[in-house]
């Protein structure tokens, strides 16, 4: 997918969140430490893909994660997760 964009091919939006996420992780992998990539993949596999993996990019909205399953947005402290708390 990244190679297609680099060659001028623009996404149609028919790709899923899971496909884009895996392509992104493969793309950034060489520039990140193995520990960082392992953590990113773990978060993707445990949180993002189960919740949004099958959603097509053209159908994705900002509210998708919240509306799909609000229980995933709460940590053990019952406060909403933010990017700083993940």
Mean pLDDT: 77
Number of helices: 4
- Write down the Rg: 15 Å
Distance between the termini: 27 Å
Please provide the ordered H/E string of secondary-structure elements: HHHH
Q: Roughly what percent helix?
A: 40-55%
Structural class: mainly alpha
Low-confidence spans: none
DSSP strand (E) fraction?
Answer: under 5%
Count the E strands: 0
Number of domains: 1
Task: Give the overall silhouette.
Answer: flat
**Main sheet: strands, sense, barrel:** none
Assembly state? single chain
Summarize the structure.
This protein is an all-alpha fold and 86 residues long. Helices cover 48% and strands 0% of the residues.
Question: What layout of secondary structure does this protein have?
Answer:
Elements: H1 2-6, H2 17-28, H3 34-52, H4 64-68
What does this 3D model show about the protein?
This protein is an all-alpha fold. It has one domain. The protein is built from 4 helices and no strands. About 0% of the residues are buried. The model has no long low-confidence stretch (mean pLDDT about 75).
What brief labels describe this structure?
4 helices; 86 residues
């Amino acid at each position: 997918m990244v190679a297609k964009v680099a060659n001028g091919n623009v996404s149609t939006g028919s790709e899923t969140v899971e496909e884009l996420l895996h392509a992104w992780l493969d793309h950034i992998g060489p520039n990140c430490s193995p520990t960082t990539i392992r953590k990113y993949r773990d978060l993707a596999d445990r949180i993002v893909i189960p919740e949004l993996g099958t959603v097509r990019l053209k159908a994705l909205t900002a509210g998708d994660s919240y509306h799909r399953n609000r229980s995933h947005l709460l940590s053990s402290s019952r406060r909403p997760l933010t990017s700083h708390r993940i």
